[in-house]
Specification:
alpha+beta; 3-stranded antiparallel β-sheet; 10 strands; 21% helix; elongated
């Protein structure tokens, strides 16, 4: 009888996740493209939160990388959709102890910006503005196209020793679902 009572109370007890840990979400909230000087530029808003452990690691100098995967397809009625273009965009967030600033760097273009607080740097990562992603000559205005975007925060940029220690932790890896829309080109 005591075994049943303890088993029942263990099943009824809230999990560690429900007690104190917040479920981490990562999603693309919105995305659209705009024509600009012969290319289409991507504007997107991301929604993600970092767990306390990841925030602490950044403050200690561990860089986190945001990857954006972008796929443009031409929709076809009687055949498989054709991939017109793919783009893999990388951003890095790192703390610079000497200047006591947080640096957000576009690893593809080298463009960078400095922020006084971690929250300000994260807010900058959450808003993608004017990212050149597709030459207008690659699309035909008479055809239907579909654009998909997905983001993830990757741990592969961590030092090997820290990556080994955090091998079992999922808190460091977040991936959004694909966000897909059909723009009017």
């Amino acid at each position: 009888m005591a075994l049943l009572v303890s088993l029942g109370s263990a099943l009824a007890a809230p999990s560690a996740l429900a007690q104190g840990q917040k479920l981490q979400r990562f999603e693309v909230r919105s995305a659209y493209i705009e024509p600009a000087e012969g290319v289409y530029e991507l504007n997107a808003t991301l929604n993600f939160d970092l767990p306390d452990g990841a925030r602490a690691a950044i403050r200690e100098g561990v860089p986190l990388t945001l990857h954006l995967e972008i796929v443009v397809k031409r929709q076809r009625n009687y055949w498989l959709d054709e991939t017109v273009a793919t783009l893999d965009q990388h951003y890095e967030l790192a703390y610079r102890a000497l200047s006591e600033r947080y640096l957000v760097r576009n690893l593809n273009s080298g463009e960078q910006a400095s922020y006084a607080t971690l929250d300000a740097a994260l807010d900058a990562l959450r808003v993608i503005k004017g990212l050149p992603m597709l030459d207008q000559a690659l699309v035909s205005p008479k055809r239907r196209h579909e654009i998909s975007i997905r983001g993830n925060i990757d741990v592969r940029t961590m030092p090997d020793a820290l990556r080994f220690v955090l091998f079992w932790s999922d808190d460091w890896r977040q991936r959004s679902e694909w966000y897909t829309w059909s723009p009017q080109l």
